[in-house]
């Protein structure tokens, strides 16, 4: 049984007369009304010309082609198995990508036929009704797509940018290898560059775009934009820094929101201080979640009301007969509670660990950007300022694989040095198709089972959702000797993640004067 038959049929369709009759009727419909492209015959005659069209399945993934066949035949989903339905879902996603790219190509084509500033009659109008194209083109597109006029005008500009500046990205989109969000991320991120530099960034990120999560793709785009245009990156950072502000807004149910902006280094340091203090509060009488603790502590720090008083913990130390306690025992119990409490000087006042990868040339006054781990590229001036007053941490990487080997710091819960090592090695959550921050350090081989050591090789950084997914029924997670994690879904589909590739942070960066001659290093 070939893949096309198995993707839309029962396990053994040859024994099902109803299925065979369905296939016969479907083939008749296709032969009578469709060309091998899957188009209506009259439309194909106009678009394909007199030459016989090529085999429609050539160069198209079998699953994607089968999804189109299901669409043409109008097959009922209840006639196929769960795994076959997932195959069709994958193929449908392929065709959704191709269709959205075709829409963008069509908008670009009609815009190219009628450039801005020219005059022509609208399609279908009297040839004598000549008027400026800008008067009718956005409205025509808006009516066809049923979108507002301003949206149509924006879409026309975006389509022309794809066609003129980023044709390779549009071609990848049309092939179905990348989706609309990925293509638009490349287009929008490179708007800050001139056309030539935008093409060079495209050439650097496009090869890895099909398999990259959206957030990681944006990180790579920012990194290459900073490398190819360090002066522009510094100017944009200064403009954004001058606009830093704090705002408040009211919400429903008696709640409100406080928004606090700042440089990436400020935000990271503030987050680490509040997060560290929240995690240090280990009171069995406190039923708040970690998020609730962070919010409460942040407000207490801003308001100057942070205290160490905890009546519930004192009562617990005194025991059930605390009512008649003498003064000495009361003082001893309070002292016992305070010893267990976090020291503000230690939990808050200690400098947070901020990891910055800085080329030596930048420290000596060069313009090459640095990398603030977890946030992305930062201008050279900011990197030098952080280097002047920061706590330094050496990052040693494998020169071939880019895998972190050591962070330079000489039980069940890993020591601080080991936890820092694992978090930096993994970069983001190691779950399938995830780019969230690492929240939990998971023992791959369970510690409670007696064979799961607390070691860097057995620890992986996960977000809360993927930590729970790892133990969900039917899921398997395999750890490779190269540090990879392979996630196997109950349906058998696999996704493999790797430790963060630190080569993108340590590769030599081009000098400003050489930007026009050197190629951007791929990620």
Written account of the structure:
This protein is mainly alpha-helical. Helix content is 49%, strand content 9%. The protein contains 22 helices and 14 strands. The chain has helices spanning 3-8, 17-33, 41-48, 62-73, 82-113, 133-145, 149-164, 167-175, 180-189, 195-205, 214-228, 230-242, 264-280, 290-303, 311-318, 327-340, 344-347, 360-363, 380-389, 416-426, 464-470, 503-506, and strands spanning 119-120, 131-132, 246-250, 256-260, 356-357, 370-372, 376-378, 396-397, 404-406, 440-443, 459-462, 476-479, 485-488, 494-497. The strands form 6 sheets. A 3-stranded antiparallel sheet has the order 5-6-7. A hairpin with a 3-residue loop joins strand 6 (370-372) and strand 7. Helix 6 (133-145) packs across helix 7. The radius of gyration is 30 Å and the shape is globular. The relative contact order is 0.06.
């Amino acid at each position: 049984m070939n893949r096309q038959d198995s993707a839309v049929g029962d396990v053994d369709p040859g024994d099902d007369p109803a299925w065979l009759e369905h296939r016969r009727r479907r083939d008749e419909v296709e032969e009578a009304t469709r060309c091998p492209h899957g188009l209506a015959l009259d439309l194909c005659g106009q678009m394909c010309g007199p030459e016989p069209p090529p085999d429609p399945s050539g160069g198209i993934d079998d699953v994607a082609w089968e999804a189109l066949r299901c669409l043409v035949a109008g097959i009922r989903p209840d006639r196929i198995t769960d795994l076959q339905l997932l195959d069709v879902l994958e193929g449908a996603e392929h065709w959704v990508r191709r269709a959205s790219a075709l829409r963008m190509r069509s908008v670009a084509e009609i815009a190219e036929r009628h450039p801005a500033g020219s005059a022509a009659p609208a399609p279908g109008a009297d040839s004598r009704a000549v008027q400026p194209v800008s008067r009718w083109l956005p409205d025509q597109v808006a009516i066809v797509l049923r979108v507002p006029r301003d949206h149509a005008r924006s879409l026309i500009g975006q389509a022309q940018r794809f066609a003129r500046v980023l044709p390779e990205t549009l071609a990848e989109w049309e092939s179905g290898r990348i989706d609309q969000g990925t293509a638009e991320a490349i287009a929008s991120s490179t708007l800050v560059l001139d056309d030539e530099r935008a093409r060079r960034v495209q050439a650097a990120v496009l090869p890895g775009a099909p398999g990259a999560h959206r957030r990681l793709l944006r990180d790579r785009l920012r990194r290459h934009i900073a490398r190819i245009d360090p002066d522009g990156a510094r100017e944009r950072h200064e403009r954004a820094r001058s606009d830093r502000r704090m705002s408040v807004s009211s919400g429903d149910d008696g709640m409100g929101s406080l928004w606090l902006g700042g440089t990436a280094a400020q935000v990271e340091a503030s987050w680490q201080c509040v997060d560290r203090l929240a995690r240090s509060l280990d009171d069995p009488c406190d039923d708040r979640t970690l998020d609730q603790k962070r919010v409460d502590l942040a407000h207490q720090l801003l308001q100057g009301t942070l205290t160490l008083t905890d009546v519930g913990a004192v009562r617990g130390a005194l025991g059930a007969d605390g009512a008649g306690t003498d003064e000495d025992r009361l003082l001893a119990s309070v002292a016992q509670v305070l010893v267990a409490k976090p020291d503000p000087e230690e939990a808050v006042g200690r400098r947070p660990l901020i990891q910055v990868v800085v080329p030596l040339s930048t420290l000596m006054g060069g313009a090459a950007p640095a990398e603030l781990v977890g946030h992305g590229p930062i201008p050279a001036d900011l990197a030098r300022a952080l280097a002047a007053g920061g706590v330094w941490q050496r990052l040693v990487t494998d020169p071939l694989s880019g895998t972190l080997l050591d962070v330079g710091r000489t039980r069940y819960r890993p020591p601080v040095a080991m936890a820092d090592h694992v978090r930096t090695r993994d970069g983001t959550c190691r779950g399938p198709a995830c780019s969230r921050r690492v929240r939990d350090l998971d023992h791959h081989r369970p510690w409670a089972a007696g064979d799961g050591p607390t070691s860097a090789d057995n620890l992986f950084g996960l977000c809360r959702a993927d930590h729970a997914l790892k133990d969900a029924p039917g899921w398997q997670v395999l750890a490779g000797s190269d540090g990879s994690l392979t996630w196997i879904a109950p349906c058998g589909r696999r996704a493999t993640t790797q430790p963060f590739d630190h080569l993108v942070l340590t590769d030599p960066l081009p000098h400003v004067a050489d930007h026009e001659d050197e190629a951007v290093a791929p990620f």
